Amino acid sequence: MDAESLPYALDLVAGSGICLSPEKRAALRTSLLLVQRDYRFEQVRLWGRIRGIRGAYYIAEGLGPDRAGPRSRLYSLNCVDWSLLPPPSGEMITSTAALKGRFQGDPSYEYENYDKKEEGEKPYEEEIGVMVKEEIRLVITVDQIDKAVGIVPRGAYIKTPLGIVHENRSFEGLSLTEAKKLSSYFHFKEPVNLKNKTLLEKADLDPAIDFLDSLEHDIPKELKLGPPTWKLQQKGQQKLKDQE
Q: Could you tell me the pTM of the whole model?
């Protein structure tokens, strides 16, 4: 949600039961515009809210000239004061991989994470506990959610010959036919499958638009809800084929 149009965007999602008090709505819009000015971002968006036991984290992200470039993320506990989150790293991912359960709502809260013993270690050796702050867990959680569900429609962003990604101002949305296709949606992150395609497969792609990985060949992970989700996707594709 863009900071400038935040009140209208919040009204659109209020029908799902997700709403904020008038005080927080006003504080969010004012404080985010101040963040945009102080940090000199081209655009500031409200990423979302993560609820904890003692409080909630309000997450915002600041964007620069390259919309696909690194993003600066901030969090607030009161919708007024914002703190900059550090960029995610491999060490952070390793230290927070075993953490489960709800957030506490306190960025200074420390989790005690025990390293797993490797094969060959003596069984009587005590496990060494590593203290991990909840702020670090928040960084990794937001980053993983963004990579997993960050999806944009085809044509919403364009890539210049210099490699910079901009919003396509002439994009007016997908047609009804295109909106039903998985190939019309992209993961808004660094492409992986696109790099493995052959030149023949890339022949029909537009480098200015098709520079991200499509959802067309996604396979859900083997989780408890994975197989049913994949079946629903297959049924949806078969239904579309029948309609065509």
A: 0.80
